[in-house]
Design brief:
Layout lengths: L1 H16 L6 E9 L2 E8 L31 H11 L3 E6 L4 E8 H9 L1
Antiparallel strand pairs: 1-2, 2-4, 3-4
Helix pairs in contact: 1-2
Bound molecules: adenosine-5'-triphosphate and magnesium ion (MG).
C-alpha cells in the first residue's frame, strides 16, 4: 500500500507539473537481482540541479508549483517509503522534464508478501 501511495505521488506530480498534452512514461524494471526500479518521467519543466535535494524535504515547494495546490509533502513521503524498503528516490533529468527513480530492495517485497 505504501508503494502504491508513493507511485501515486510521483504520477500526481507528473500530471500536475507537465504541460497539458504532456507525455508521462511509467516503467518498472528489475535493475539487478536485488533491486527493483519504478520510474516516472514527464516532459514538464523538471527540477533544476540546485533544487533536487530541497524538493525532497518536507513542505518545500519549488518554482514549478506556483499556482498549483499542494503542501510539499509528496516527494518526502516517496523518499521515506523508498528508504523503508531498503532503497532510495533519485531525481534525474528527462531532458526535458523530471525523471524520478524509486528503487527498492527486491527482498523487501518478498518479505512483505510472506507477512
Ligand atoms: N514532475 C515534476 N516536475 C517539476 N517539478 C516537480 C515535479 N515533481 C515535483 N516537483 C517540484 O518539487 C516540489 C515538491 O514536490 P512534492 O510532491 O513534495 O510537493 P507538491 O507537489 O508541491 O505538494 P503535495 O505533493 O504535498 O501536494 C514541487 O512543489 C515542485 O516544485
Ligand atoms: Mg506532489
Amino acid at each position: 500500500m505504501l508503494l502504491a501511495q508513493a507511485l501515486g505521488n510521483l504520477v500526481e506530480n507528473a500530471l500536475k507539473y507537465a504541460p497539458a498534452q504532456g507525455v508521462i512514461a511509467i516503467h518498472a524494471r528489475r535493475s539487478s537481482p536485488l533491486s527493483i526500479e519504478l520510474v516516472v518521467a514527464d516532459n514538464g519543466p523538471g527540477v533544476p540541479d540546485q533544487e533536487k535535494k530541497k524538493v525532497v524535504e518536507r513542505f518545500y515547494r519549488g518554482d514549478a508549483s506556483r499556482g498549483t495546490p499542494g503542501v510539499g509533502l509528496g516527494l518526502s513521503l516517496v523518499s521515506a517509503v523508498a528508504q523503508l524498503h531498503g532503497g532510495s528516490l533519485v531525481l534525474g533529468d528527462n531532458l526535458p522534464g523530471l525523471r524520478a527513480v524509486l528503487s527498492i530492495d527486491a527482498h523487501a517485497i518478498a518479505v512483505a508478501k510472506q507477512a
